[in-house]
């Protein structure tokens, strides 16, 4: 089975880029066709069908992977339960050692895996290697440490004849479904805490980005009992639904769109199974008049253009105070103009292509609609001039001014390099607009006034508030959303608890049973 946009993706980029990508692909991809990983074996789908993995920049086929079915998920779940009988008996200390070994082995393959994401998703290689992989590897080390030291339960005060205590237990088999924008990083985010908690895993990567997940799974599975990590590739409508509906999957963790989260909740509701969801965002990025403008500009570059805006935490609504707007915009546009748009495999590239042409068309449509609704195109909004890049799905960072908070571009998640600038003067009105969204994933504040920082942090309706920084995820603090941005937390101690259930035990040492 082949998706329509693959035909549209094949383009004529410059010869030097095409040749470089072909050479790198030959160097880092060993398989013409990948199987599912089920029970420690690489197997074909019961459908007999495969899908293409495509280079985001050149449109060339990189490899093929399995077009999975519900029957494949059945086999993976069975294999995961077989492995759980072994993994559940492994001590926290041994689980910790295994997770540290996984981290070390992934670190050895960091450059190779990062280049896979640069090929398949178009990620700037400096970002995939030193941000995405760094965070993914750190998750295995962090949860490896946490599972060794985490509280296994508690003991409430006992009476003379009774003892009560609690204990943490894994769910068993958990289903994990990830998005295409940070493929390698999500493996660390989801698999590390699930394994640390004692579960085994059935994992589905996005059909737009599979290769780094499959190669990471190869490394992870070599450390674990066969079947502790299983990977079933394919479409969300087939494989994703099969995982979230499966009676043998006792918990689901998903990163994806808000609509994908709704489908997952509907599927899980039939069995009342718990879900963790990290979904979309429309994050406000607020600049106060007392802000350090240089720091705020550099932080807003990260908030706006990192991963070409294909991030749920993008600070897509920039609230600029009227007193600082002119100075900020001049420096921000200059800093944006200094970014290097180019081949994602180049170490000099800051901005690579979007994931494919369908997505480019969708993002471009938001720009067109914004202008129709009265916004001013202050910068970008077009493909770069570089002839080497012509035909590939690039869009220059795009800055829209004169945007109203109820405009389409300010309300809906664009998921691309499109920034809406909203001027403000009154704090209460600005904060009301910042919170006037169905989302609540992240937010940011730039100020040198501690009162402004504290008040804003209290008033913002978001799971994360960054003060004078953005996308700062290297510290183990809880990450997750309010409202329709999801439920549950990742990257922290709360995540380990999310992948465990609590059992309460009360022992009676001789007294008569009590009623009530």
UniProtKB/TrEMBL annotation:
Domain of life: Archaea
Protein's name according to its UniProt entry: Aldehyde dehydrogenase family protein
Family from the record: Belongs to the aldehyde dehydrogenase family.
Pfam families: Aldedh
InterPro entries cross-referenced by the UniProt entry: Ald_DH/histidinol_DH, Ald_DH_C, Ald_DH_CS_GLU, Ald_DH_N, Aldehyde_DH_dom
Domain annotation Aldehyde dehydrogenase: ranges: 42-505
Molecular functions (GO terms): oxidoreductase activity
Keywords recorded for this protein, A-Z: Oxidoreductase
Complex formation: Homotetramer.
Catalytic site positions: 278
